[in-house]
Amino acid sequence: MDYRIPVGDWIEAAVEFLLNTIQPFFDGVTLVVGWLVDQLESGMLGIPEWLFIAIIALLGLWRVGWRFTLFAVISMGLVIGMGLWAETVVTVALVIAASVVALAIGIPMGILAAKSDIALAIIRPVLDLMQTMPPFVYLIPAAMFFGLGKVPGTIATIIFAMPPAVRLTNLGIRQVGREMVEAGLAFGCTRGQLLAKVQIPVAMPSIMAGVNQVIMLALSMVVIASMIGAGGLGNVVLRGIQRLDIGLGFEGGLGVVIAAIILDRLTQTFGHHRKQAGVLERLKGAAQWFTRGSGETKDKPAQHK
Amino acid sequence: MTDKIVVENLYKIFGPTPKDALELIQQGLNKDEIFERTGNTIGVQDASFTIKEGEIFVVMGLSGSGKSTLLRMLNRLIEPTSGSVRIDGHDVTHMSTKELVALRRKDMAMVFQTFALLPHRSVLQNAAFGLEIAGNDKSESEDRALKALDLVGLKANANSFPDELSGGMQQRVGLARALAAEPSVMLMDEAFSALDPLIRTQMQDELLELQEHSERTVVFITHDLNEAMRVGDRIAMMEGGRILQVGTGREILREPANEYVEAFFRDVDITGIFIAGDIAEDATMTFAPDEAADKALKALQDREQPFGYVLAKDRFHGVVSQDSLKHALENNKGGLSDAYLNGRPPLKAQMTLREILEPVANAGYPLPVVGRRQRFYGVISRSTLLEALRKED
């Protein structure tokens, strides 16, 4: 029996067909995604290093706390010291671009899935497929449709990173308590108002957990996507592998970890309903700590988990 | 009082084929048979009642009795399978979505067992929710919401968030949210059931106080009989989706429709519900005020009665005893009024049994009970009271 079911051939034929018929669509996507990535990249590279660090530090003080801020500043210094600043910024720009697109598609899809059981029944197996398929597999059609470079890398990243946004949005909205929904309706919400004023805000922690997951997945994928020329830190890691240069590979990897921790901690904090201590209070708290020494750590605004 | 809500032959059947089940009900099959044959569950069966404007109408039953379903059919959070609900004469069951939304915004508010406050909104924003949804101007909404918060005593917490408040305070916010739009009907679904007993009583008092100054109609769901007796002007008893009886607490207590209702009411604390007028017994000996003292004494002695009650027609004048009559006669006073015992004031007919415990226990004679303008209801002796407390049979 040397007959095998030619699934591979079918997929190839389908890809071929898509290539021939809706090429203009792919060209359009290439244009939009390419523009987004380029703008972000050049914009972020245009920011002086010290200003970039200062912005992250301020965000860190506002949202997380002084410990995190200290870590972020030191580790960003390390990145500069390793000579990987530009690569890291390119990677982060790719991650942001891919995440923005993934969220722009994923969150509305999650809302749709929450509102309609039929939509969920269709979307769910697609998500399962997207998540279990080894990420390298995305690289091939992405390269075929969009060529080599940043755009296919970003597209592959978008596909790989999107599922948590859909899943956690769907889950979050479906988990909004029955009486909460009833309260919305009982006070005269229309369907749109119910979604905008009750369901989405109440589901926000779950949706933001999705956002956080999307960003983390995107970061892991852009490294892989460097195999089709996405650039950034992935290139450094790839070069390390190709030359069996463990030092170079580790430096690239360290850059990814630092970017991951900073992105993760910053995005995690946006999932809370509660008003946080204001920027000023936090800065004041930080200033106090710097002037009085570390004995005052208990004054640090409480971190919400 | 005018009729505010009229419910007629209301049914709710959950399941795949409600219409089939409805037919089987009409054929007289019971709940279990219908479930076995069609897989449909009966939520509410043939509910008909009228709620008057301004009253607190309590729907009482155990969990699964269909009371929450019934409540939700009033504002159509749950669609009735058949039957009609009319509010101010408008048929709610046939309203379009638009009319329904308008009704919910203007006329009906709801308070929930789990409070159902929105965690991302401050207390003030929660209270203003209904007004904001209805498209009111933001500052006007917040002004009105602040007034509602003031009514429930939470004005000072306007800028807090729900998770910073205790359960009782959270439900006050729920109440304020419902009051803010000044609805004519307020639906309360086990609103106080999640609160601890002390706070619950406090909230019940507040609800009663709020009602005193308002024409609002309240439909109040509870599984707690004492709560039902406390807040309800009238009570509807539900079991298995049916309404067994509608009436005031005392009416139901005195004449329960069936054994289920009677058994249910067995645990109620009647000392706060029955009043002196309910249990007063006729006095054995009564005299007219112009009766002569010696004749009265003779009569008492003949019947071996220590006390006699002096009435002018049906107005109470005083109590005499053999001793007091003798004493009056010894002092050459022949009128009954000279022999009146000046002990305790008569009991008021509206006093609850709890309130009369002390006077009855300490009085040396069966105390007379009077209504308005001293109208005589009868007397309550210690044994009468004990008999009443021993529960009716």
Automatic annotation (TrEMBL), chain A:
Principal place of residence: membrane
Location(s) in or outside the cell: Cell membrane
Name of one Pfam family that matches: BPD_transp_1
A GO molecular-function annotation: amine transmembrane transporter activity
GO-annotated cellular components: ATP-binding cassette (ABC) transporter complex
Ranges for domain ABC transmembrane type-1: 88-267
Keyword Glycoprotein attributed: no
Keywords for the protein's UniProt record, in alphabetical order: Cell membrane, Membrane, Transmembrane, Transmembrane helix, Transport
SUPFAM superfamilies, A to Z: MetI-like
Record-linked InterPro entries: MetI-like, MetI-like_sf
Membrane-crossing segments per the record: 43-61, 68-86, 92-114, 135-162, 214-238
Membrane topology (UniProt): Multi-pass membrane protein
One record GO biological process: glycine betaine transport
Record's keyword annotation contains Repeat: no
Source species, domain of life: Bacteria
Family: Belongs to the binding-protein-dependent transport system permease family.
Protein name per the record: Glycine betaine/proline transport system permease protein
Automatic annotation (TrEMBL), chain B:
Superkingdom assignment: Bacteria
SMART domains, per the entry: AAA (SM00382)
Gene Ontology BP, a term: response to osmotic stress
Gene3D superfamilies assigned to the protein according to its UniProt record, in alphabetical order: P-loop containing nucleotide triphosphate hydrolases
Matching PROSITE patterns: ABC_TRANSPORTER_1, ABC_TRANSPORTER_2
Keywords recorded for this protein, A-Z: ATP-binding, Cell inner membrane, Cell membrane, Membrane, Nucleotide-binding, Transport
Assembly and interaction partners: The complex is probably composed of two ATP-binding proteins, two transmembrane proteins and a solute-binding protein.
The name this protein goes by in its record: Quaternary amine transport ATP-binding protein
Lineage, top ranks: Bacteria, Pseudomonadati, Pseudomonadota, Gammaproteobacteria, Thiohalomonadales
